Amino acid sequence: MLSRNPARPVAAPPLPAPRGPLSAAVITALREDREAGAPTLDADPYGADLQLALYCLYELHYRGFAGVADEREWDPALLTVRAALERLFTDALRADVEPSDDVGAELDALLVEPVEGQGPSWYLKKEGEPWQVREYVAHRSLYHLKEADPQAWVIARLDGPAKAALVTVEHDEYGAGDPDRMHAQLFADMMRALDLDDTYGAYLDAAPAETLAEVNLMSLCGLHRRLRGALIGQFATVELTSSPGSDRLVRAMRRLGLPEAAVEFYAEHVEADAVHEQLVRRGVIAPLLAGEPALAADVVFGIRASGFLADRFGAHLLGCWAQDRTSLRHPLPDHAARASSA
Ligand SMILES: [Fe+2]
Ligand SMILES: [Fe+2]
Q1: Residues 14 and 65 sit within 8 Å (Cβ to Cβ)
Q2: Which of 95, 111, 143 is at the close of a domain?
């Protein structure tokens, strides 16, 4: 099927501004086409400096950055830095989440919805304001404009029924043959309807560490074959929890009277992810663990690490909003102010 939208030129985003010595070393090495030096490794594993450095190194495997040669993707010195940062991040996550290999209990727990939950989607549904919905979408754009890409890395590492079922879900994420229905495209449509910039990477400089860490976990697990079990756990977390969460965001947007064009992305996920939930559980995880039972502990690790980082993200947003201040590093330009000054 052909797209009804005109093709847009593909442009890599600009490099972001550094946020400390680690990210400065990586960004300078990329900007000035120099070899990266050995990093100092006393950084906070969840802090903005390390998370931004890691994000930039991962981005070389997706769209890259303007002015950075494609060859830097496999630059040995940059890969050495990346490995050191990944070790800090994974060591911290392994220390912060309890180990378990009971995948069934973990999946059951994901499906239990609290009567009155705590996260941003609950807040937005009940009392959020339009500026908070726009901020939430700006944060989420770091992943959703490349939705399903980190999980696509795992396809070649799976076999038989698990591979077939995962590709079925991925096919839907990429629009099931209709480029205008790609979830990344629906997300971009929603951003424009909310008067946000849908350019890839537009909100990287505005994104705090908590936002970067969630995307970095996906890239980390996607790029390492040894973490294929964790990637499936992360994928399961998204697919099993997305349907009710998306429903809350649809209700938030309708309550606030936001444009119907903005609602479509989450409305699509209420439907699609109810189906994906079953496909992931029975189609992907069951045959994966039948073939490779030793992956069970890593599937649980992927689920728990995703939940841990999602909780940090949610706490950051709600903490900022409780003080009536922006959850981004700088507030979004206000639509009304811009319209009146135009
Ligand atoms: Fe999706
Ligand atoms: Fe899905």
Answers
A1: yes
A2: 95
- Note down the domain range covering 52: 21-95
> Ligand 1 centroid to 267 CA: how many Å?
11
How far is ligand 1, taken at its centre, from the CA of residue 25, in Å? 34
pLDDT digits (tens, 9 = 90+) for 75-104: 999 999 999 999 999 999 999 999 999 999
143, two tokens: 């992943």
Looking at the structure of the chain, the number of domains it has is 2
Residue 341 has pLDDT above 50, yes or no: no
Using a CB cutoff of 5 Å, list residues around ligand 2, an ion. 239, 273, 276
CA of residue 269 to ligand 1 center, whole Å: 6
Give me ligand 2 centre to Cα 314, in Å. 21
- Span from the CA of 272 to the centroid of ligand 2 (angstroms): 6
Classify residue 283 by its DSSP letter.
I
Q: Are residues 166 and 64 in the same domain?
A: no
Asked if 177 and 296 sit in the same domain, the reply is yes
Contact 191, 302 (CB under 8 A): no
Q: What is the pLDDT of residues 202-258, one digit of tens each?
A: 999 999 999 999 999 999 999 999 999 999 999 999 999 999 999 999 999 999 999
**DSSP-derived secondary structure for 75-105:** -HHHHHHHHHHHHHHHHHHHHHS-----HHH
pTM: 0.96
> What is the CATH classification number for the domain harbouring 143?
1.20.910.10
Residue 336 shares a structural domain with residue 278 = yes
